[in-house]
């Protein structure tokens, strides 16, 4: 006992140093992109979380993924939901999400009033936060002004969710991740925290040993409202975990590193685009100034170095106006040369009435597509889904895309060993 006590101060001191070292973990060496972006912190404004009560009509933003900056009554039947971004300038992704109900059944007109940019997302309604229905264009219009959408709603004591996209925030994503971790080939870990302290979730997928396997890296939700791209990612990963010969073979020979929620603060706070640092995370893959990017980049780099994995493909799931693939240009030869052409052709062959829209362009700003290429010599692809692409097709195509990728990578591997 006496012996241990004498050394106690040394123990405390060394533990503190270790803790300090871990918390101050430095960023990976910077990468040089042709078009640098300053990603130092900028201030953001958080919305006031509250329930608005106006003579028997109630609106609420107290849930993860909500965005409602003010709620007012204009006249007997007209109400206004004011919507603002977290900061400005910002991409034109005017996201909104709130709950609304009334003490008695009544018909109202509800204005979505955007203080910046214009109406973008078709309103989606739900009574349980799970089943969502898009409003028909006869039930809302933007005739008053491009930044005002007027919705015809019937309110009742049943809580109605009105949202630019389906609400898929930390709780829903954690639930999806938890369900996946029942699979014997999935291991869950937290690889850091967001600026507001939310977990950076990670799933590591492989059979038996991870060592010396070629790897695929999957990212999603750098941009909070890009839920349709997130759905594609879910289906893509689910297909890789399927109990089929193809997926089993793939898990035996390859490793998949999945980071399903890159911007947990932005998603849960209902941001249009940015992190708590006020920055577009998909411009920070050069200097890693935002801790969300830093923790994921560090984790990928250290993991594949430790286990001698070679990253072949990096997919980053997003949403935009329509389905497309941002790919590397011809002059960038990756370690799986021609992967993209064969992959998109494989997807093309599965659908009679759909052809993948390939948008090759050269390295420019520090985005993940370029990061995968510069950091690992890997094929980097931004997998974009349209805001309103029908969800069953998004999911089906996600599964198809996973199968086509697995086939190609297995084929390439057998070609190597023959
Ligand atoms: Zn995006």
How would you portray this structure in words?
The chain is built from nine helices and 19 strands. The chain has 418 residues and is α+β, with helices and mostly antiparallel strands. The protein folds into two domains: 51-163, Immunoglobulin-like; 170-417, 3-Layer(aba) Sandwich (Aminopeptidase), CATH 3.40.630. The strands form three sheets. Strands 12-13-15-14-16-19-17-18 form an eight-stranded mixed beta sheet, sandwiched between helices. It has a six-stranded antiparallel beta sheet with strand order 1-2-5-11-7-8, with no helix packed on it. The chain is globular, with a radius of gyration of 23 Å.
Q: What is the compact description of this entry?
A:
The chain is 30% helix and 27% strand. The chain contains nine helices and 19 strands. Residues 1-23 have low confidence and may be disordered.
Task: List the main descriptive attributes of the protein structure presented here.
single chain; 418 residues; alpha+beta; Immunoglobulin-like; Aminopeptidase; eight-stranded mixed beta sheet; globular; binds zinc ion
Number of domains: 2
SS class = alpha+beta
Total of helices: 9
Order of helices and strands: HEEEEEEEEEEEHEEEHHEHHEEHEHEH
What is the assigned CATH homologous superfamily of the largest domain? Zn peptidases
**What oligomeric state do these chains adopt?**
single chain
- In total, how many beta strands? 19
Q: Mean pLDDT across all residues, rounded?
A: 94
Strand order of the largest sheet: 12-13-15-14-16-19-17-18
- Tell me the CATH architecture of the largest domain: 3-Layer(aba) Sandwich
Could you tell me how far the N terminus lies from the C terminus, measured between alpha carbons in angstroms?
63 Å
- What is the overall shape? globular
| Low confidence ranges | 1-23
């Amino acid at each position: 006992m006496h012996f241990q006590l004498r050394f106690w101060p040394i123990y405390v001191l060394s533990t503190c140093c270790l803790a300090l070292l871990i918390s101050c973990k430095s960023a990976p060496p910077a990468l040089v992109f042709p078009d640098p972006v300053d990603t130092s912190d900028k201030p953001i404004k958080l919305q006031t979380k509250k329930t608005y009560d106006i003579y028997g009509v109630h609106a609420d933003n107290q849930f993860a993924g909500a965005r409602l900056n003010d709620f007012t009554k204009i006249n007997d039947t007209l109400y206004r939901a004011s919507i603002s971004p977290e900061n400005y300038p910002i991409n034109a992704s005017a996201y909104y999400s709130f709950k609304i109900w009334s003490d008695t059944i009544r018909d109202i007109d509800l204005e979505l009033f955007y203080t910046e940019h214009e109406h973008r997302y078709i309103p989606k309604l739900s009574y349980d936060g799970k089943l969502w229905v898009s409003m028909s264009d006869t039930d809302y219009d933007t005739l008053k002004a491009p930044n005002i959408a007027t919705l015809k709603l019937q309110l009742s004591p049943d809580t109605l969710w009105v949202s630019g996209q389906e609400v898929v925030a930390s709780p829903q994503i954690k639930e999806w991740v938890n369900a996946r971790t029942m699979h014997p080939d999935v291991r869950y870990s937290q690889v850091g925290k967001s600026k507001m302290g939310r977990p950076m979730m990670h799933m590591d997928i492989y059979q038996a040993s991870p060592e010396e396997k070629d790897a695929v890296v999957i990212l999603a939700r750098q941009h909070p409202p890009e839920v349709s791209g997130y759905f594609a990612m879910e289906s893509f990963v689910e297909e890789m975990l399927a109990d089929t010969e193809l997926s089993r073979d793939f898990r035996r020979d390859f490793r998949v590193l999945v980071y399903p929620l890159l911007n947990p603060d932005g998603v849960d706070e209902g941001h249009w685009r940015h992190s708590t640092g006020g920055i577009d995370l998909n411009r920070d893959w050069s200097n890693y100034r935002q801790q969300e990017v830093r923790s994921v980049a560090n984790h990928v780099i250290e993991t594949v170095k430790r286990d001698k994995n070679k990253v072949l493909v990096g997919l980053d799931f997003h949403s935009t106006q329509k389905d497309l693939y941002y790919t590397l240009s011809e002059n960038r030869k990756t370690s799986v040369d021609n992967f993209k052409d064969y992959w998109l052709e494989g997807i093309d062959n599965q659908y009679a009435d759909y052809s993948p829209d390939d948008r090759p362009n050269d390295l420019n700003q520090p985005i993940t597509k370029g990061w995968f290429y510069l950091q690992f010599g890997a094929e980097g692809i931004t997998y974009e889904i349209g805001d309103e692409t029908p969800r069953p097709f998004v999911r089906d195509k996600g599964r198809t895309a996973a199968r086509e990728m697995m086939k190609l990578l297995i084929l390439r591997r057998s070609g190597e060993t023959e």
